Structures are given as C-alpha cells and as structure tokens.
Amino acid sequence: MQINLADKVLQRIFPFLEWWPGVNKTTLRADLMAGLTGAVIVLPQGVAFATIAGLPPIYGLYTAMVTPIIAALFGSSRHLVSGPTTAISLVIFAALTQLGAEPGTDEFISKALTITLLAGFFQFILGVGRMGTLINFVSHVVVVGFTAGAALLIIQSQLKHLLGLEIPGGKSFVDTIRVLALNIQHSNPFAVGIGLFTLLLAILSKKLIPKIPNLLIALVGGSLLAFGLMQLLGSEVVALKMVGEVKGRLPTPSLPDLSFGSLTQLAQSAFAIALLGLIEAVAIARSIAGKSQQQIDGNQEFIGQGLSNIIGSFFSCYAGSGSFTRSGLNYASGAKTPLAAVFAAVMLAVIVLLVAPLIAYMPVAAMAGVILIVAYNLIDFKFAKTVYRSSRRQSIVMAITFIATLVADLEMAVILGVMFSLIFFLQKASTPNVAVMSPDPNDSNRRFTYLLRKPLPECPQVKFVRIDGSIFFGSVNHVSNEIRELVDEQAPAVHTLVIVAQGINFIDVAGSEWCLQEAKRWKQKGGGLYFTGLKLIAQETMIRGGFREEIGEDHFFVSKELALKAIIPKLRDEICATCTKRIFQECVNKPCLVDNGQSIEIVV
Fold first, then answer.
1. Strand order in the sheet with 556-557
2. Considering its fold, how many domains does the chain have in total?
3. Is 83 in the same domain as 103?
4. Are 336 and 27 in contact (CB under 8 A)?
5. Are strands 556-557 and 528-532 parallel, antiparallel or unpaired?
6. The CATH number of the domain where 544 resides is what?
7. What's the pTM value of the predicted model, to 2 decimals?
8. 187-210, pLDDT tens digit by residue?
C-alpha cells in the first residue's frame, strides 16, 4: 500500500512516469516518424510566428525546441504539441509595442522573456491551486472571436511586407489600413509578385499533395523565385527585403528582467497571455483526447504549460502554448506517447544547425505570403456561422470579443469576452424556466404538457408548475415572481401548488428559505406546497438546514402519481362536487353533482 502511494506521489510530481513503462520498440518507431514530420512542419511556422511576435526568427525556433519537451513531460496529454502559436505571438507583439518597445531590439527581447516568465508563473500557480476547472467557464466562442480578430490583425500587419512598403508601427487597425490604401501606388511589384506566388504555391501544394509540408515548400519556392529575379535583374532593381542572418545554434541561456518595475508593468498582459495559452492548450488536448480515448487532467496541463514557459524564458524562448495544427498532425502521424513531441524538438535542433544560414536568403514578402495563409486558417467560419444561427447571446459574445480585438488592447479583448460570457451565463442561470402543466386528454400516455403549447383543462384547486433550473440566490426573485404571475394572478382560487422538480439540480440556502416561506404561504391559503421528482442531491441543503423537515416530509413525492393520491383527498369537496373538469383519475372518488357526461377522467 505504501509503495502504491509513493508511486502515485511520484507520478503526480513527474507525470511522465505514468506512460514511460509503456514505451517499447513499436512506440519508439511510431514516435520517431511522427517527430520527424512535426520537426519539418514547425520549421517555417517557428520563423513566421517569431516574426509576428516582433522577435528575430531564431526565437521562434528556440521556442519550438524547448517548450514542447517540458510541456510533453509534465502535461497530461499524450498528443499535445506545444510551442509558438499565432495568437500568443500577436498578443506579445501588441503588448510590448504599446509599452514603447521597438520590435527586434534587445529591450523588446528582454521584455518578451519577462512576460513569458510571468505567464508561466501564473499558469503554474493556477495548476498547483487546482484551478483547472476555470477553463470550463471560458466559452469557446470567446476563443473563436479572439482568433478571428487576431487573424485580421496579423493580415493587416503583413500587408506592408507583401506590398513592400515601409509603414511605421503602433497605429490602430483602421489607421494602418487607411495608410496602406493611401500608399498602395508605391508598392514594390516584385515584393507583391513574390508574396502572391508563395501564397498560391502554399495553397496549391496543400490541395494537390496534402501530405507534404506545404508551407515549407512555399517558402523554398518563393525564395528560389526571388533569387532568380535578383540574379536576372539585379538586387538593386528588385529591391527585396530579406529576413536576415539567423545563426545556427542551440537555445542559449537567457535572463529575464526581474526588476520590480518591469514585473508590475507586464503583469496584466502576462496574465492575459497565460489565460489565452491555457485555453488553447486545454481545448486542443481535450479535442484530441476525444479521438484517442485519453483522460485529460486540466490541472496537470496547467502545470505543464506553466513549467514550459518558466523554463523556456531562461533559454531564449518566448511564450508558447498548444498548437492545433502540430498536435493534430502528431496524432494523425501515429504518435503513441509524448516522446513524439520530444523527438520533434530534438530533430528541429539538428535541422536548424544545418539550414539556419539559408534562412537569411528568405524574402520578407515570401514570409508574409505564408503568414497570410496561417492567419486565414485561424478563422473558423463554420463554427461562427453555427453560433450565429443557433444562439443570439453567444453571437453577441463572439462579436464583442472580435471587435474588441481589433480596436482595444488584446488582453482586454480576452477579458471582455470572458466577462460577457459569465454575464450571459449568470443571466441564463438566474432565469430558470417556470411553466404551468396539465395532463393532456389526447395523449395516449396521459402525459403532462405545458399549457403554453396547447390549451388544456386545469383543476380549479391544484396547479402543477415545472421549474427547469436551479433555485439559488440569483434566481429566487425570478421564480417567485413567475409563480405569483402564473398562479396567484391567473388563478387566485388555487390553494395547492405542486412543483414538478425533475429539472431542478441545485437549491441553496436562499432557495431553501424561499421554499419554506412558500410552504407557509400556501398552507395559510388552506392547501400546501408539494414537490415531485426532486433529486436527493438537490435536497442536500434543505435536509442539512432542516428546511425539508419544517416543510413536512409528507410534502415530497417521487412521482406525480403518488403526489396526486395524497393531495386529491384533501381537496375541498364543495368545489369538486360542481367541477366539470375532473382531469385526474383520483377525481372519481370525489363527490360529483354534475352530469358524468361532462366529466373528463384521465389517467395520469
């Protein structure tokens, strides 16, 4: 028993010990092949994402080397591949440029490493604090709205490179588009041609030969075309801007700026990056786990992502997260264990040592063409269309996040999206559905039906009201008002209320107090308040607080049939005697002074 407990503790600290015993020749072979594919794919992505972040290209490759290894070893997913991502790269660029840092400078790089350290720290603390369930409160529409807005910002940022224009940064989305439109006549036709050729080559190669790394092929093709034009016409005539020298070396040790001023200045942006990174990583891990039948531990993913960014910040890496493209490819390539991500990182390091000098000959316009493809693929048109058709509230959240991404600080866009998601959730939770029901005489099973759907005869003494939702401090006022409107105002003679409670999942102290007060009110009317089908878990507070006992144990029933058998004998005989509705089977035992031909007897 002690050995098992020790093993569990070690697996909690070092989660890779759980899957390590399953590694064998077969899994190693599969992971090596998947790793090789991943290394080839991430090479152009790493360069592109670092460019989006305003960092030298090699920093994207460093992030793709270090971050995946730590995240794979300390996360819970067997297929999630971490590293540089488009959205986080854009947030880092926006956050640091707003602080006045010039992209590519030592100050910019230092702040990027610091913000990475802080983001990792926040993620790690949330994981250790078992706050993984927080992600469940972040609607997917927030992520979709944000990434769509980020995609447009990325496209806008790359248009100047595609057109070969020198446009100063720091302008708003609208201002940048306006400046581009005013200066489009000064575009470099060779840059436009190289960029469009690269873009089209990426699209065609993906469509015609989907298994090849289309982005890498496109970059090579665009670079060769640029080289040919410069040889034919001369570098001065073509006037193409190149990516520049990239030294082929492994990640170097680095030291983030740990000064108090820098930490406080970057804390807000770092928290937004941490939140966005966790949303991406956990969502991707869960999506792939649904296919691989693996159980994901959200808290462990938080810890893995946090450690990868913390450690990465000391090895020249900027903030990373899970990549849907690389993770999906990793699973599709047959990866069996997280070693596939480790192999991909190691192979990338080898490739970088060999080909890094060649990146210097890559035209910025060709890079822009590839980034435009990456940005366009971020927009989930299908999901956005589904949301628009199915939910007005979710559509509003998505639109708010999208617009805020374009016009406000990126970290504020995420916060706004999350805030409005919670507001709409609380608004929905605080207004549970309350509806009057009655047995349907035309239903062969004699089932109860909502009166809103069709007019049905009702008992003049008893009302059946179904509540779908929780009765808690936020919904008590709504439920009370609905019942008074549906029952007290529309049928003042009714003295007995039966709450059909199968749809109630939770009742808190405020809800229990309301139930008790309602029970007393209906008792004063000469009847009572009864519950049918109320789950035991929903009664927990009522039982512990003594509310159920005070209301009366005989006021809670498992089914409507049992409730009717107990309630009908208590109804006033003088009213039953002249009633022509008599909608319950139990009504046959009550006195009747009217023609039986007018009676309607229905089995419930």
1. 448-450, 433-439, 462-468, 496-500, 528-532, 556-557
2. 2
3. yes
4. yes
5. parallel
6. 3.30.750.24
7. 0.70
8. 889 999 999 999 999 899 888 888
